[in-house]
Amino acid sequence: MIIVMVKGATKEQIKHVEDRIAEWGYGAHPIYGTERTVIGAVGVPEADKMTYVEQLESLPYVEQVISVMRPYKFVSREYHPDGTRVDVRGVEIGGNKIAMMAGPCTVESFEQTLASAKAVAKEGALILRGGAYKPSTSPYSFQGLGEEGLKILKAVSMETGQRVITEVMDPRNVELVCQYADILQIGTRNMQNYDLLREVGRAHKPVMLKRGMWAKIEEWLQAAEYIMLGGCTDLMLCERGIRTFETATRNTLDLSAVPMVKQLSHLPVIVDPSQGTGRWSLVDAMSKAAVACGADGLLIEVHPDPEKALKDGAQSLTIPNFKKLMEELRPIAKAIGREL
Ligand code: PEP
Ligand code: MN
């Protein structure tokens, strides 16, 4: 870390900071400027750093403490320079093939889930999405079928041969959801639910962590670090749009986060253009853009009859529109050396 002293800091004050650094067992490398002194501290272990930064910043003659290391380690690109390939019972995510996860926003019934699953499986979606526990801004809207929904997902996936991704919202339900799901989804509203992150990290299951709608990339990666610290190695991230001043779309789908995160981290990145835009008519264009900018997979809401959907009908693709999207995505994937 680098400690910037205030203008005019005295020799004693500089000496005090150097002594503190030495006391912690690290090397102090001062640069005495004519106006300002800057001290480099080397060898500070990650775990202690935040405490030291805060202690130094409490001194009135320290202007700023800059941390040169990233506040996460296991999710950083340096930890796995070649990138991670997540294994979902034999389906690989993060390799050359772009993973398609598609299905209804919410599990409403066996018939509705089966109709979506069969249709998307036919087009090549190896992973079925569907919410059994639905996080809702309004406590009055449909909250999902719970365990009944999980049972439907399992039964449907047995018929189609797909893997299942579904959201877990409560640390107390992790074990239960693990019995039915192949990938545990952490929703945007829970990105900073650290107890939940720790619990899914310990579950020995693939996990997909959505970006908090308010979260900076660094905070998102720190949340991912919690999951990896629990022992999870099959982790992926999902960009699902963030809140901005814009209201024409439900969220602002931050596609620049895809190449940014891929530079910073080894984890596969999935894009969710459904929550990302909130409009079915934009899902097609944003899916193509996501593939073009390097996404490792897409999470797309598809409903056999969006007009009757209990949730997110406005952003759900019809089955024919999903089929058309898949056809149009193939040449884009090919153009960047990947396949669908
Ligand atoms: C969803 O995938 O249906 C969902 C609720 O996602 P998010 O957490 O991104 O809102
Ligand atoms: Mn949804």
Give your account of this protein's structure.
Helices cover 36% and strands 18% of the residues. The protein has two domains: 2-67, Phospho-2-dehydro-3-deoxyheptonate aldolase, domain 1 (Alpha-Beta Plaits); 86-335, TIM Barrel (Alpha-Beta Barrel), CATH 3.20.20.70. By secondary structure, it is an alpha/beta fold. It is elongated, with a radius of gyration of 23 Å. The strands form three sheets. Strands 7-8-9-10-11-12-13-14 form an eight-stranded parallel beta barrel, surrounded by seven helices. A four-stranded antiparallel beta sheet has the order 2-3-1-4. Helix 10 (280-292) runs parallel beside helix 11. The longest helix has 17 residues, at 319-335. Bound molecules: phosphoenolpyruvate and manganese (II) ion (MN). Manganese (II) ion (MN) binds at residues 105, 275, 301, 311-312.
Brief descriptors of the model:
340 residues; alpha/beta; Alpha-Beta Plaits; TIM Barrel; 2 domains; 8-stranded parallel beta barrel; 4-stranded antiparallel sheet; 14 strands; 18% strand; elongated; binds phosphoenolpyruvate; binds manganese (II) ion
**Cross-sheet strand order for the largest sheet:** 7-8-9-10-11-12-13-14
Please state the average pLDDT score: 95
Number of helices: 11
* Number of beta-strand segments: 14
- Summed up, the domain count is 2
Determine the CATH superfamily of the largest domain.
Answer: Aldolase class I
Can you summarize the main beta sheet?
Answer: 8 strands, parallel, barrel
Distance between the termini: 44 Å
